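Margin note: ligand = zinc ion.
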Amino acid sequence: MVSEKFTVELKAPDIEPYRESNIGVEFVTSFDSGNSGPHVMINAVTHGNEICGAIALDRLLKDGIRPINGKLTLAFVNHLAYSTFDPSAPSLSRFIDEDFNRVWVEDRLDGLEKTSELQRARELRPIFDEVDLLLDIHSMGTFSQPLMICNGLLKEREFVTKVNFPAHIMCGSGHVVGKRLIEYTPFNDTQNSKVGLLVECGQHWASDTGVVALDTALHFLRACKVVDPNFINDRLSPEAKEPGTAAMWDVTHGITASTDNFQFCEPFVGMEIIEKKGTKIAQDGDKDIMTPYDDCLLMMPNHSPGAGVRKLRLCQRS
Ligand SMILES: [Zn+2]
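Resulting structure:
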């Protein structure tokens, strides 16, 4: 595995205390303020190797977080994959049978097929159908700056502007196979006001990534207006207390390797902005990959080898 060269600086918390649920779904805890307001949800470990979200939720739960308006639900999504996390082989616990963040297609959710992730998705689906505002916490394979991802619908652009953390907001699908949770039909629907956001907090096991996960969860909760602002302010890191205005970008292209011989021109980590249109950024077999416009941002380069691997997304300023 490519990522085995990374040092694991974060410590995966013990989430066993959260197995017992107060709503009958293991590793999901929900609080109802009794007051009106949105149903807000934060997900950790949608990918079992991305431990930063578990650190953030563990902290919020240990600190006794409660909503003052609406409902707040905190979920350790792929707890089975997470339970296999081994710091000496940290990449191996991403999922059990398949990527949880690709199964959000009705045909598969409604079907008879059984995988570990589909069964967990079916357990959680009624909750996702009910929530109004969702934050799904992830991390990345490279040392990219953190970024927030949404589909780019107007309702999402309006809400994510209020969250305003981390500093980059990326709008668009990136052309994945299957559907991510934030693309699940009820979220990706202009006829309702539900919003699903996905944050990529930094490199999977870098110490800063845990800080960004908690800061993002707190800014999300602030924008949702369901938690006492003092609780939030007391826990934000110094760097996150007064963030500047986040920049919004549109994902315009997804680049998938068509050969086993795909090479980036530089060891990109992500969020590099290539000034000139027509700059060569990679080679795929004998094909040159060029930037299609000026000021092209490179999002989430993937250095794993192999034809069919999604290598990169290209983004243009909104
Ligand atoms: Zn992820």
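The CA atoms of residues 60 and 133 lie 18 Å apart.
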